[in-house]
Amino acid sequence: MLWAEYDPLAHRRLAIxxxxxxxxxxxxxxxxxxxALLNLYxxxxxxxxxDLLALNLQRAGRLGTYAPTLGQEAANIGSAAVLQAEDWLVxxxxxxxxxxxxxxxxxxxxLYWMGCEWxxxxxxxxxxxxxxxxxxxxxxxxxxxxxxxxxxxxxWVTLIYLGDGGTSKGDxxxxxxxxxxxxxxxxxxxxxxxFAISVPRTRQTASATLAQKAIAYGFPGIQVDGNDLPAVYLxxxxxxTRARAGQGxxxxxxxxxxxxxxxxxxxxxxxxxxxxxxxxxxxDPLLRVRRYLExxxxxxxxxxxAREAQHLKWAQEQAREAxxxxxxNPDEIFDYHFAELPPYLAEQKAYCQRLLTAKGESAHGQA
Amino acid sequence: xxxxxxxxxxxxxxxxxxxxxxxVFLAGEGIGVGIHDSPMLPTAGLLKxxxxxxxxxxxxxxxxxxxxxxxxxxxxLRPVVEIMYNPxxxxxxxxxxxxxxxxxxxxxxxxxxxxxxxMKTGAGFGAGCQHSHNLEAWVAHCxxxxxxxxxxxxxxxxxxxxxxxxPNPVVFIEDMMLYFVPxxxxxxxxxxxxxxxxxKRQGTDVTVVTWSKMLLVALKAADQMARENIELExxxxxxxxxxxxETLLASVRKTGRLVVLHEATRTxxxxxxxxxxVMEEAFESLKAPLRRVTGxxxxxxxxxxxxxxxxxxxxxxxMAVQEIL
Lengths: 367, 325
Description:
The complex is a heterodimer. By secondary structure, chain A is an alpha/beta fold. Chain A folds into 2 domains: 2-325, Rossmann fold (3-Layer(aba) Sandwich), CATH 3.40.50; 328-367, no CATH class. The longest helix of chain A has 26 residues, at 34-59. In chain A, 45% of the residues lie in helices and 8% in strands. In chain B, the strands form 3 sheets. A 7-stranded mixed beta sheet of chain B has the order 3-2-4-5-7-6-12, sandwiched between helices. In chain B, strand 6 (146-148), helix 7 (153-165) and strand 7 form a beta-alpha-beta unit. Chain B is globular and about 55 Å long. Chain B has 2 domains: 2-185, Thiamin diphosphate (ThDP)-binding fold, Pyr/PP domains (Rossmann fold, 3-Layer(aba) Sandwich); 198-324, Rossmann fold, CATH 3.40.50.920. Chain A binds chain B through residues 88, 117-118, 120-122, 124, 129-130, 134, 137, 139-149, 151-152, 158, 170-171, 174-175, 177-178, 181-182, 332-333, 335-340, 342-344, and chain B through 25, 53-54, 56, 58-59, 61, 63-64, 66-77, 79, 94-95, 98-99, 103-110, 112, 143-144, 146, 166-168, 195, 241-243, 245.
């Protein structure tokens, strides 16, 4: 079994596709044939284009603070690719790709980062929780969500994302302990991108790996090369399958590297060197899939230039749609709070409307 | 009518709602197998009658208990979870304040958060300041939460049944002393809507606004003062959020005098909110400055004589009333 073979305490790490594009065919999941791989690669390219555009929009003042995913495309796409529609995805805040794959539109995500909270208004059928700003706290209600599946006798799975810094929180401990005690269908997915804002992974814990933390809670953990799409996919597939079969939770530590800033408000040159960053480019998650698929004759520099251009165009259209959708409606900030409008909020809403009327603005945005 | 303690009345409410709706479940520390096997306690016998699937004893993890409630509510269940003591709310507060209270707003009203967090509270047991600490004003300050603090067994039952049927997160705070104060509880099915105060005693001279255990103090003081022909009108808020301003203001307009009584500490206490509402909307009715009778701004002492000093008494209330007559 994967879990026994890749015991984190024995310093084993799951890897399938090398940075040079060499595929370990013995480990490769059979359903991840060249066609499937190309599809997921296509999603990684889309994510990268969406991400780069977001940065550009932020620099141009058209988007607020943004948390880039550059370098973490395989961890995003390889994991969420395993989920079914009925499964829940509980994000932290650097899961743009995972959320896109699970059905959240880029327009909504851009809206969110443009400072419009309506960007968290996901369609009912999209089982994704809003982005969670307090670090690691999503693990707690993520476990609650997965426990509900168990109580209801349904076999959907909850995939919870967190970062390496998130494992330092007490919430992570309580969530892991609950999941282990109640054997909930939960997959904890750590995007270990080596930095919690400016604090490096070595300052988060004395544990040799984050994956080994699962052992203390009585369930398996595995460390994977987080820049290796097939490895991320395989580990998540095994974890999700196991959870769906009622065999309890798993922890995946995807070792990746955040090549961008923590957010656009961060300056990573203050805590890491250019040389380190340059070195990391060799491990780029897209590059290795591209090398592999090029060797297989499935892509050329021309097809790839076209692919990037096509995805950039899509991202630009989504950004334009987001900008057109920005509105502020003071009614909504009162209406969405409770299922009904309690008298005191009705009073405060009326006061807000009176103020706007006095200022000559409509209650629905521009005058 | 059946004479029951508040714990027994809550127990009935939990049973009835669990029977009525299979999505209702309970979780908390020692709510199934507890250290006290007393029929006066709220969750007595529920594990035996409803089974371990729906009555969940959990690890000692307040944050995870609250997380269980939030996550399960997202999935359409109706969790009723217990945080053993009010001061432990601080351990669960991120889940309640940052998630339970905000996820509906963040999701644009698309998600529903029908969850109840029950917390035990109240000085008087010599349990010390880390077990006894009334934090209702903290909770009331967080938008997105409804806050209930019943004073009688009948109210507790009717309010909890409403809370469990609410589509919103409700924090339900029970004073443990009241578990042992019997009162009549209707035998037939009933609910009490959240956001409705009740005048527990009619009077003409001074309005006393209170809630939870302090109702008993107010009623005793009213009895004593009636002998001197001073009639207190006792308004029991029952629900702090939403606040029933109508009942409160009507009473103050009638009597022209107000004392707010609560066990919690003074600075930033909910009496300040009640006072502010009255000053804004019934200032012209006031014949005298209002008074607050509250616990002092100190942790609840563990020593019984000091604890008795901490808890507002009928003497302190009567003094405050006399000051403004």
